DNA sequence: AATGCCTCCTGGCGGC
DNA sequence: TGCCGCCAGGAGGCAT
């Protein structure tokens, strides 16, 4: 679900609430998400100060004093909900009363000023781990990640090298977090449409020019989405409860049977299934 | 090494 | 109202 733009939007929403603040209590309400939580997670979080909130690919990294970092992945349905004094001007807010946790509220963070941050994840494909900060880069889930799309390392030359000789469809290659980190199903479809490239085309068959265009369009698509606060599908919201609005800018995602938005194209958006996932594209202008 | 399939889990929606 | 199948923003793990 949440791809790079949504995760970045969540991170930005959490910064004013958590960065520099102490977690006065962490309520870990079940033993696991996708994997078991690390030993003593609640105790290790309680009383810790969040010194910095970073993002790597689709992971939020909350650096704590105590030299540990909380690694959070939202999976398909994970949300970080903020409630309480921060950002509100409720008189006596410090004594704000929080309602009882709801279904799928798995981890609740109480912040020193009375704000409450709740990790809610119906499908539990999300994950959390807590590791030494100097070991984050070497963490099993982090170490395998390719470059950030906005990093200089993600160049046309780099992408060309990674795609060279690959028999896999370009769609699959771009979903591979080892090649470039942060893309998911929506933004791959959108970036391929912007590039006029079919998701079915084999990675090895792209020209240098197409690869260069693609790298640029990936960055452009993600930038546009971040600027819009991400995409709000179903119940996804920004951390502050606001809805992102990039979904209104989708050219192909969720538009099966509708007219292609390429000026003068006249094609119709179709849905193909590739390795079990929907690939929305326009057969007329995506080759 | 590269590729493709299965799986984890819950909920919303459309069809009957 | 109820039941059923399908679909959903991810990605690790495993067989080939």
From TrEMBL:
EC code(s) of this entry: 3.2.2.23, 4.2.99.18
Domain annotation Formamidopyrimidine-DNA glycosylase catalytic: ranges: 2-126
One biological process term in Gene Ontology: base-excision repair
Any one GO molecular function term: damaged DNA binding
InterPro entries noted in UniProt: FPG_cat (IPR012319), FPG_Glyclase (IPR020629), FPG_N (IPR035937), H2TH_FPG (IPR015886), Ribosomal_uS13-like_H2TH (IPR010979), Znf_DNA_glyclase/AP_lyase (IPR000214)
SUPFAM superfamilies for this protein: Glucocorticoid receptor-like (DNA-binding domain) (SSF57716), N-terminal domain of MutM-like DNA repair proteins (SSF81624), S13-like H2TH domain (SSF46946)
Residues bound to DNA: 104, 123, 166
Keywords recorded for this protein, A-Z: DNA damage, DNA repair, DNA-binding, Glycosidase, Hydrolase, Lyase, Metal-binding, Multifunctional enzyme, Zinc, Zinc-finger
Cross-referenced PROSITE patterns: FPG_CAT, ZF_FPG_2
Comment on bound cofactor: Binds 1 zinc ion per subunit.
Keyword Lyase among UniProt keywords: yes
Cofactor(s) the protein requires to work: Zn(2+)
Domain FPG-type: 251-287
Reaction equations catalysed: Hydrolysis of DNA containing ring-opened 7-methylguanine residues, releasing 2,6-diamino-4-hydroxy-5-(N-methyl)formamidopyrimidine; 2'-deoxyribonucleotide-(2'-deoxyribose 5'-phosphate)-2'-deoxyribonucleotide-DNA = a 3'-end 2'-deoxyribonucleotide-(2,3-dehydro-2,3-deoxyribose 5'-phosphate)-DNA + a 5'-end 5'-phospho-2'-deoxyribonucleoside-DNA + H(+)
Superkingdom in the source lineage: Bacteria
Annotated catalytic residues: 2 (schiff-base intermediate with dna), 3 (proton donor), 58 (proton donor), 277 (proton donor)
Family: Belongs to the FPG family.
Function: Involved in base excision repair of DNA damaged by oxidation or by mutagenic agents. Acts as DNA glycosylase that recognizes and removes damaged bases. Has a preference for oxidized purines, such as 7,8-dihydro-8-oxoguanine (8-oxoG). Has AP (apurinic/apyrimidinic) lyase activity and introduces nicks in the DNA strand. Cleaves the DNA backbone by beta-delta elimination to generate a single-strand break at the site of the removed base with both 3'- and 5'-phosphates.
PANTHER family linked to this entry: FORMAMIDOPYRIMIDINE-DNA GLYCOSYLASE
NCBIfam families found in the cross-reference section: fpg (TIGR00577), PRK01103.1 (NF002211)
Subunit structure as annotated in this protein's UniProt entry: Monomer.
Protein name as catalogued: Formamidopyrimidine-DNA glycosylase
